[in-house]
Structure formats: structure tokens, C-alpha cells
Amino acid sequence: MKLFGLGVLATITGLTVFICLLVVASRGIFHLIFTFLYKRITTERYWSNVFETYNLAKMIGLGRLVETELRAAHGQPPERPFGRRNMVSPWNDLYFNPVFFHRLPLLDYTKVGTEVVIGPEAKYPLKLKIPILIGGMAYGTALSAKTKQALALGATMAGTVANTGNGPFLPAERAAAEKLIIQYARGSWAKDLEVLEKADAVEIQLGQGLWGPAPAEISPRRLARNPKLRHLLGAKPGEKAVIPPRLLEAETDRELVDLVRAIRAHTDGVPVGFKLGATQWLERELEILIRTKPDFIAIDGMEGGTHGGLGSSLDALGTPTLYALVRARRFLTAKKLTGKISLLVGGGLYSGMDFLRALALGADAVFIGTIALISLVHTQGVKVLPWEPPTKLIYEGGWQKKKLNIEQGAQSLANFLKASVQEMQVAALCLGKAHLSAVDKNDLSTVNRELATYLGIKWCGDPTV
After folding, report:
1. Which residue, of 83, 116, 148, 187, has the greatest Cβ tally within 10 A?
2. How many CB atoms are located within 10 Å of the residue 440 CB?
3. Which helix (H) or strand (E) holds 410?
């Protein structure tokens, strides 16, 4: 026993000495490397100085620099996940105005109403507990089956609705979602009667905010690796699956009216609406869409996310979410359609205060995508980081997608939604409003004079009498 104790002591002593030597040596190695780099940076002329890379990145932007290198490497436009780099809509310039005595704040935030009805004039309106919807994100063409199930389950736990996106119908998603919006996509799939009958609402997808109506395709090689996806997309072996830039079955006003009528006949009265990207031609598009008498219109601003749109396009296509929302609400109000057609908006909305600002400016509800995925992944990101991005965990093409825990992801998403709604309720309490839908632009002010004039709200420097 004595010899064993001496052996342990010797081992510990040896490890301690080794660690100390390693620390000393590493300090020396680090010093040599630092000295070498420091001398190069501070003595070499710029055309041979590694610091010039920093100047390039600062001048061009690190994102543009990387995308330039990707174009040079592959000879194709780089596909950037999630969307734009920068926010365009001035949400952060809008402030809520609390009340103290001229109108009393409420006593309990939990009594602030949060429920919303989508498509109030439909035979079977979509009734939700909260005004935050999960936006359309496709199975197969974007997300994995596990990710879609987690989104659907999280939506159910939070009292809201999931959305199939423009991919094929996934039975497991339908099973996990208490309420599900099925997108009638531009592709040829998920349009048969059996699928549409499973919808709690149908969203005719015309395009996305920052992606517009751009076409997309899934290569035969990728489909060959996933026969199940190829079958769901209806592609034959060796064929590619294509999402065309427009609905081929509705290319005129009359055909669009007939399409909505046919979907209503097949779905027995659930809300039927449209999703389109925000555009400067918004009013002209809406003028056509309202002729079909839709139950809702979902507008996706240019700050919205995407599975992997072309990098340069993401920075140049579309109209900012805030302006599209305001214009759409003004249009529907002028047409006396407020309360008849629900207005949904998404794109660059990340927090409870973003959601409440959108409601105050006229949205009946908001839909989220990127922030929902971030919330869903939460601490599960450590399963792939730092060697791989979290997209490997949630995308269909991610080789680590099997590591995603559905129940854990759903709970994380539900927690995010619950916390966001609570933040909105507390803010409404401070405004003296008993329901989130009662918050309007009179509860807003801004330091931006131009924005104040455009929105018809108070500039912070003006007195209110």
C-alpha cells in the first residue's frame, strides 16, 4: 500500500512538472509566433504585408470578401443561408409610450389577451392562442424531417400554427402539429386533394421577400441520395425537381380566382390566403389578389430568411418589411377590408418587441423563421460546433441532422415563444392595453422626424396635449 501511495504521488508530481513545462514552453512558442507576426506587420510594406487582408475586409466587408472567394472557387453564385446581413427596416427607431395616470396601466400582465383569429370570415377560421406563427420552411428542399417535427411540436406547445413551406408534405409534421398551414407551392407537389384536406389553412405561395419569385431546383444527384425525398417531390430517377418562378396553373386573374375557388371547395372552409414577397409593386399585386377574396395575405419583407438564396440577390431584391406592412395595411383599410382579410407579416422580426411593433403598425399576426430555428437549436448547437455550423444539424443536407433531439428542440422553441409573448404582455400592460391587438400606432413615437411623418406617429420632441 505504501508503494502504491508513493507511485500515485510520483505520478501526480510528474504530471504537475509536465504541465508546468508545457505552460512555460507554450508561452515561449506563443511569444516567438507573436514576435514574428508583429515584426512582419509593423515593418513590411503593404503590398507584402499580411495586414493588408484586414484592410481589404474592412473596405469590401468580410462577408463580401468570403463570397468573392467562393465565386472564384466554384464558378457559381454562393448560396447564403438565412438571408440578409443587415437590417433595413427601422424597427429600433420606434418606441412604446407607457402611461401612468392619464390612462392607468393594468395590474396584471397575464390578463392581457393574446389570442388571434386568422381568416375571420372563413367557415372555419384559424384560431390561435398567440399572434406569432411559424413561417413556411420546407422539408427536404431545406430542413430535415426532425427539424420540421420539432418546429411543429414547438408550435403546438405554444398554441400556434406550423407551416409546411414549399416542400413536399411530411406526415410526421402533420402528426406533430395541432394546427398546420399547408403551402400550395409553385412546384408540382403537395397539391392533391388528400394532402389539402389535412390543412387547417392553405397558403398559396407566390414567392418570398428577399428571394422574390426566383426559381429553384434540386439536382438529380442530390435526389439520388434521398429516394424518399425524390418520391415525395414526384421526380423520376435521373430527373431534377423544379420550383418554377410562378404558378403555372394560374397565370391570369381569372385562373387565380378559379384556383382559390377550387381550393376552397376541396378544403371545406378553412382559410385560404397568399404569401408573397414585399415589392414596390405591392399595391398592384394586392389589387389582383383581393379579387379572389382571400382570407389572409402574408407578406414577407426583404429581411426575411431563406434556405440558401444567391448572396448578391439577397442584398438587392425586395422591399423592407416595415414599409411593406404599413403600405399593405393602408391599402386594406382604404378598401374597407380590415377585419375581413387578415394581414400577416414576417422578415427580420427577432424579439417580442419587434413582434409588438409590427402589430402596432397594423399586422394581425407575425410569422418567424430564422429566429425560430435559432431558438430550436439552442444548446444543441454544441453537437456540431465549433467544427461545423449549426445548419449541419437542421438542414436536410446536413450530415449531422440525426443528432437533433426533437423534444428538446420543441421545448426550446416553445420557451422562446412563451417568453416573447410575456414580454409583449408586459409592454401592453405598461401601455394600459388589455389585449395585444389593441396596441396601435398611437402607442408609438420615434426620434426620426421623417419616420414620424411617414407613419403618422409622434416625434419624441413634440408635446402631446
Report:
1. 148
2. 14
3. helix 406-431
